[in-house]
Amino acid sequence: MHVYNQIASKLGLQKHFGEVALKPSQFINRFSEKTTSNRAIADKPRGKADVVLVDEAHLLLTQGDQGYSGKNMLHDLLRRAKVVIAVFDPNQILQTSQRWSEEDQDMLFPQQAESDVQKTATGYSGQLERFVPLNMWGDHYLLSRICLHRQFRIAADDATIRWIDDFADGKRIGRIPQDIWEKDRKTGEYVREPFEIRVFDSPVELFKAIKERAYLKASGVDGCGLSRVVATYDWEYKGGKINDSSPDGLWNVEMHRDAQGVWRMGAAPGMQRGYDAFNPDGRADYFCHPWNYEIKVGDKGLSLDAVWAESPHTLNEVGSTFSIQGFDLNYVGVIIGPSVTYREGKIVFNEKASCNKRAVSKRNGSISYAQSNLRNELNVLLKRGVHGLYLFAVDPELQAALKEAASK
């Protein structure tokens, strides 16, 4: 939202932040009737915008919460706009509150044979599908789609992208392919360097390697913000609250290496704990870095219009889906926590090891989407890097499988 606010302001579309670029709940409230106490009534639209563009539309809520009194955000947006353009990827839904019923999702995304889609070199069907009636929630709309078939973030050959896709989908861990230099067919000049996938024996070494990449002067914000370390949400985090159980008061991604050389969650008994701002790379047998937005500059954290990945001091933090989804990095280091395991040749998601309550909670107290949500969390994290992906897994069997895949 901060990025879109910056763009809208620079283009002269708005004088102040929040006039054109808004959170969905803010937009819905603006175009709603109000109570006598000026509280928006989600079920009573008032007025319509001409065109609403929804980026990351898979993050729209499909049930109410503390900040949203409606039942389905997309429905509420449709009732408040003449045209809604929604960029939607079902494989990036991360929370139970964003899940659709199979019936509703099939209505929005009807199954279509691959042969019916005219692929082009640009990776989409080339034109809008014909408009068809959409009857949902007792209302009538017209629906059309543009089907995207490629991603343009990961600068790698097809085999490398396919390996990342298979791993992110929880399908398998095959041999990591060797990407090669790409030449321009006409000039013979190299136009793309190989995409680099590396598996590290230690999260400490992975962090150091990513920091080295971030310091390189490349395109970006003075060489900063190009590379970051992220992790699955398997370490506790409560934003805005002090961590009383940690000496530094921060919510940290913390691990130690035991006498057998295996990395374990948390600190070893008797070990001096906490993030060391003066020695952020720590010891070789201990990893401790704060979660995103934990490190303060002076007495404050990030300003409201700052982007996490583009702020230099966040280089010593660990990002999550909350801070990195939708953004590109040159190189991404992914620490895969114990919620992702490897058993009998299969990738297995362990919801009991996740600290992401929004992902593992049950819908209406009975329907669990934890497996799909955790798989999508891994999918989002693995696909942030344009030029490289660095990996370390806490689960010993998964780590061994990744090492074997790299050694081949």
List the helices and strands and how they pair.
Blueprint: H1 2-10, H2 24-30, E1 32-34, E2 40-45, E3 49-54, H3 73-78, E4 81-86, H4 102-108, E5 132-136, E6 139-143, H5 158-168, E7 182-183, E8 190-192, E9 196-199, H6 203-215, E10 227-231, E11 252-257, E12 263-265, E13 286-290, E14 318-319, H7 321-324, E15 329-336, E16 340-343, E17 346-349, H8 357-360, E18 362-363, E19 367-368, H9 370-382, E20 385-393, H10 396-407
Parallel strand pairs: 3-4, 9-20, 10-14, 10-15, 15-20
Antiparallel strand pairs: 1-2, 5-6, 7-8, 11-12, 11-13, 16-17, 18-19
What attributes does this structure have?
22% strand, three-stranded antiparallel beta sheet, 20 strands, 408 residues, five-stranded parallel beta sheet, globular, alpha/beta
Write up what this structure looks like.
This protein is an alpha/beta fold. Helices cover 21% and strands 22% of the residues. Strand 1 (32-34) and strand 2 (40-45) form a beta hairpin. Helix 5 runs antiparallel to helix 9 (370-382). Mean pLDDT is 90; it is low at 112-124.
